[in-house]
Amino acid sequence: MTLQQGLSFGLIGATVLCFLWGRWRYDLIALGALAVGVVTGLIPVKSAFDGFSNDIVVIIASALVLSAAVSRSGLVDRLMAPLLPRLVSERSQVPVLVTVTTLLSMMTKNVGALALMMPSALQIAKRTGVSPGRLLMPMSFGSLVGGLAVLVGTSPNIIVSEVRGRALGEPFRMFDFMPVGGSLAVLTIIYLAVAYRLLPKHRTAAIDVDAALAANAYVTEVEAPEGWRFASGRVADLRAAAEGAVSVVAILRGRKRMASPHANRRILPGDQLLLEGEQQALNELIVKAGLKLTDADRPVVMNEPTEEVRVVEAVIGAESDLIGHTARSLKLNEAHGVNLLGVSRSGYRMAGRLATVRLKAGDILVLQGAEQQLPLALSALGCLPLAEREVRLGGARHILLPTGILIVAMLLVAFGVLPAAVGFFGAAVLVIATGALRMREAYAALEGPVLVLVAAMIPVSDTVQSTGGADLIAGWLSGAFHGLPPLVTLTAMMAVAMAATPFLNNAATVLIVAPIGMGLAERLGLSPDPFLMAVAVGAGCDFLTPIGHQCNTLVLAPGGYRFGDYARLGAPLTVMILVVAPALIAFFWPFVR
């Protein structure tokens, strides 16, 4: 072992120990490792920041933006709407939700697919009295396995493809992962449809700040536009469309006000409606029914052409000038450039027009305005934004556009017309340029810590290869596995990746283990492809902890899970993957070159 190899192993080892310790953020640890690598000369100064321009980072970032655009479109909500009322028990809910989440993970990044389906799952659980914990973890596991089936489904696939491209001159293509990943997805869906019973039946979910704030019931004023038609046009149709989550408080028709209208009351074009419900339910109903917020189309003055219109939630302070006044008397739009879209007042149902409601301290308002003007208006009015939380109420959606752009990008990459980085970066730019996703939302979709981790760890992991350390480890492993069937070696490689993922993060695991797998294959005279596939599958399958992948972390609080719950459902699945996946890989990716 040379000095450079020893330094490389020491740097990697210290980085791994810091990850295991958990004292610091993993992105900070990765940046620290990068800095140490440059100072010690392991990483050339001119190559120190190559990771930030690497195709891996571009593809992951673009996939996150595209996932957010598809989620924002509401297409999945519309496709699922006829199905959701039929899911009356967990026996039907789990297979359907897991299958849909798994399939979505084959189109968008797995964490995006899970985030897209979680609101529907929580809504179903609340409506049917099923514990969210029986639904969310199976959906998380389904998203992990579904992401294995395509290039952009999960970070390990993207990184393994890039490692292959740098070593062999040609990366894996879009659907090269499908034979193995798709087969594992089918087996996993079958397993989860039965094994969800291993999870606790009754467990109270933790509620975070955003969820608590979202539970506020708002009253908002909407209008049925000219030519409006929705189902039979009755009050009952709106209630059914919102699954009882939104109430029609009153119908305002000219000078006439009909409070608590009967379910059979017909709504006419031009009628103004007072709706009450939680923000998400209101937003979904307004979009689904084609209603129009009465004040949302009032002009918002913007200082710069690049500004965006925002909608935020704010509470009226004790010294606010709004107290005792109405929105109409204060002329909010003319004086402050903001529109009042909704009001929430605990313990009181408002049945009058929003513009004529006398406001009180503690009322929660939904205000619309230009992004530069809103902070000034909130300060002048004595209002405080709630937890810096931006809300969306009745905004326009591009239903088909984001999905269409994503499908075109996938096909262009799959048929080799464009490289993956160019295809998905172009698609991400296009969804923003067409207005399917606002720039602010695109930035919010980017997982900064993950992108920094990957970008910083690329040069660090390259030191194992550049110093010959990967070949040295491969030589040790080839001696240990000499004479054993290749399938045993492949299974061991997958097991190493599986064991490391909960502690290193799946992206870091692939960056470190994939070059070693390639070196081992070279030493044994075998094709590197099955070993790279094994590393991708192993790094993408953490079913034992809530910390190895963002999907598992995402469902931890809403599902009310404890650390050990993951192993209850995940341990049998891990064993199944370890038994089945190597055989599938060997079948579709032969060891002989």
UniProtKB/TrEMBL annotation:
<feature type="domain" description="RCK C-terminal">
    <location>
        <begin position="298"/>
        <end position="383"/>
    </location>
</feature>
<keyword id="KW-0812">Transmembrane</keyword>
<feature type="transmembrane region" description="Helical">
    <location>
        <begin position="444"/>
        <end position="461"/>
    </location>
</feature>
<feature type="transmembrane region" description="Helical">
    <location>
        <begin position="139"/>
        <end position="160"/>
    </location>
</feature>
<feature type="transmembrane region" description="Helical">
    <location>
        <begin position="56"/>
        <end position="76"/>
    </location>
</feature>
<dbReference type="GO" id="GO:0006813">
    <property type="term" value="P:potassium ion transport"/>
</dbReference>
<dbReference type="GO" id="GO:0008324">
    <property type="term" value="F:monoatomic cation transmembrane transporter activity"/>
</dbReference>
<feature type="transmembrane region" description="Helical">
    <location>
        <begin position="503"/>
        <end position="521"/>
    </location>
</feature>
<dbReference type="InterPro" id="IPR006037">
    <property type="entry name" value="RCK_C"/>
</dbReference>
<protein>
    <submittedName>
        <fullName>TrkA-C domain protein</fullName>
    </submittedName>
</protein>
<dbReference type="Pfam" id="PF02080">
    <property type="entry name" value="TrkA_C"/>
</dbReference>
<dbReference type="InterPro" id="IPR051679">
    <property type="entry name" value="DASS-Related_Transporters"/>
</dbReference>
<keyword id="KW-0677">Repeat</keyword>
<dbReference type="InterPro" id="IPR036721">
    <property type="entry name" value="RCK_C_sf"/>
</dbReference>
<dbReference type="GO" id="GO:0005886">
    <property type="term" value="C:plasma membrane"/>
</dbReference>
<feature type="domain" description="RCK C-terminal">
    <location>
        <begin position="207"/>
        <end position="291"/>
    </location>
</feature>
<feature type="transmembrane region" description="Helical">
    <location>
        <begin position="399"/>
        <end position="415"/>
    </location>
</feature>
<keyword id="KW-0472">Membrane</keyword>
<feature type="transmembrane region" description="Helical">
    <location>
        <begin position="569"/>
        <end position="592"/>
    </location>
</feature>
<feature type="transmembrane region" description="Helical">
    <location>
        <begin position="96"/>
        <end position="118"/>
    </location>
</feature>
<feature type="transmembrane region" description="Helical">
    <location>
        <begin position="180"/>
        <end position="199"/>
    </location>
</feature>
<feature type="transmembrane region" description="Helical">
    <location>
        <begin position="7"/>
        <end position="24"/>
    </location>
</feature>
<feature type="transmembrane region" description="Helical">
    <location>
        <begin position="473"/>
        <end position="496"/>
    </location>
</feature>
<feature type="transmembrane region" description="Helical">
    <location>
        <begin position="30"/>
        <end position="49"/>
    </location>
</feature>
<keyword id="KW-1133">Transmembrane helix</keyword>
<dbReference type="InterPro" id="IPR004680">
    <property type="entry name" value="Cit_transptr-like_dom"/>
</dbReference>
<feature type="transmembrane region" description="Helical">
    <location>
        <begin position="421"/>
        <end position="437"/>
    </location>
</feature>
<keyword id="KW-0813">Transport</keyword>
<dbReference type="Pfam" id="PF03600">
    <property type="entry name" value="CitMHS"/>
</dbReference>
